[in-house]
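Usage

Read records sequentially. Each one opens with the input sequence:
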Amino acid sequence: MNIFIAGLSNSITDADLLDLFGEYGEINSAKVIMDRDTRRSKGYGFVEMNDDASGQKAIDELNGAEYDGKQIFVSVARPRAEGPRQNNGGGFNRNRNNDRYNR
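and closes with the structure output:
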């Protein structure tokens, strides 16, 4: 079972998630998502547990709990949307059909 955790403080590490969720069962992986530029936590992460029943128990007991001074939100992770990543603008497009760019 893949579990999503939101509301994490900036000081939480992968090892902290392993400790927290390890009380509920065997863990395959634990990852706090970090910002590429600042190398700081984005405030959320994922834990993958071997057993669905253990994972559901962790969700039930930890959702809304306080951890490291913040309220965390825990749920089943939704699968990533398929398809290409969207670029939300920016950049310079040299292939425009605009005389201003084709001189």
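Summary fields computed downstream for this record:
- Residues 2 and 79 are 9 Å apart (CA to CA).
- The mean pLDDT is 87.
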